[in-house]
Structure formats: structure tokens, C-alpha cells
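Duplicate of #3305? Posting structure anyway:
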């Protein structure tokens, strides 16, 4: 049986793909359209999720939180200006990096000491943080769904239960 953390990450990758596929079906201007919402555009939501995921894989790989936050700040403008297809390619490449890391024997069980910006240290493991990465993505896919509805478009289902059903039925092949 596959570890739950790996299955959750696979779900996260699938759900992101669902969102990208839906966005590619819509008029091109929807992706970068400025609106009054939680984020000012869908492109900014996806840049935020990407940078957060990038920060976590950096931490998982042994970098400190300060490094991750600095990297995120350095790349923010660049990521927010990426087109839809470029951003999708960045997500796919980052997913490959996660999977390579997870395939290392000790990848998921690796312990982490995370120093938060306030100086507190949290002792955790990659195993405990993968659900956080996935939950963060799920939360922001919900933002995208709300933003699409606000612009007059339907979103696409990305529920974990649907993912499990489609996987069990053979509609999703890994």
C-alpha cells in the first residue's frame, strides 16, 4: 500500500492539473485578469502556491526557512508575470523535484528543525509537512474556484474523494 503522504501529494498534482486544464479552456485573459478578490488575479494565486511549494521543497532538502523566504521574495515578480503555459511547466518541473526527493529512502522520514522568523524552532518531519503542502494547495484552488465564479465561469471538481474514486475506477493511471 502506498504511503498516505505520497498519495496526498499525487492528489495535489492531479488537482493542480485539473485547474490548469480548466484555465486553458477559458479565454486567455481570465488567467491574468485583475479582479477584486482574495488575490487580484488567478496568476497571482498560482504564483503564490508555486513559491510556497518551492519554499517547502527547499526546506525539505536542508535549506533553512530564511533561505526559502528570501528565494520566494526574489522570484515573486517573475512568477507573477509568467503565462499560463509557463506556470504549468514550472509546476510540473517542481512536482518532478518533489517526487525525486520522496523516492529517496529517507525522504519522507527526514526530520526537520524549522526556525520560524520569530526565532521559535519547530521539530517536525517531511512526513508531517506533506499534508500541509497539500492542504495549502487545496485552499488556494478554492480561491481560484471562487474567482472563476466571480468572473462568470465554472471551475472544475478537485475534491480528494473524487480523486480517490477516479483512481480506483482506473480513470487516473499513475
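Output from current build:
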Amino acid at each position: 500500500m502506498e504511503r498516505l503522504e505520497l498519495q496526498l501529494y499525487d492528489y495535489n498534482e492531479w488537482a493542480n492539473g485539473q485547474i490548469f486544464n480548466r484555465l486553458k479552456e477559458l479565454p486567455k485573459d481570465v488567467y491574468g485578469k485583475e479582479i477584486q478578490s482574495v488575490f487580484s488575479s488567478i496568476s497571482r494565486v498560482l504564483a503564490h502556491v508555486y513559491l510556497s511549494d518551492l519554499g517547502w521543497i527547499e526546506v525539505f532538502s536542508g535549506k533553512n526557512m530564511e533561505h526559502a523566504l528570501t528565494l520566494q521574495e526574489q522570484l515573486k515578480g517573475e512568477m507573477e508575470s509568467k503565462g499560463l503555459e509557463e506556470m504549468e511547466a514550472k509546476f510540473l518541473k517542481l512536482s518532478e523535484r518533489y517526487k525525486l526527493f520522496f523516492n529517496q529512502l529517507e525522504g519522507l522520514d527526514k526530520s526537520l528543525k524549522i526556525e520560524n522568523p520569530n526565532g521559535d524552532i519547530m521539530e517536525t518531519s517531511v512526513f508531517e509537512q506533506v499534508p500541509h503542502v497539500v492542504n495549502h494547495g487545496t485552499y488556494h484552488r478554492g480561491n481560484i474556484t471562487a474567482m472563476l465564479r466571480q468572473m462568470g465561469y465554472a471551475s472544475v471538481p478537485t475534491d480528494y474523494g473524487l480523486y480517490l474514486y477516479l483512481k480506483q475506477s482506473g480513470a487516473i493511471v499513475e
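Confirmed duplicate; merging threads. The mean pLDDT is 93. Strands lie at 111-115, 121-125.
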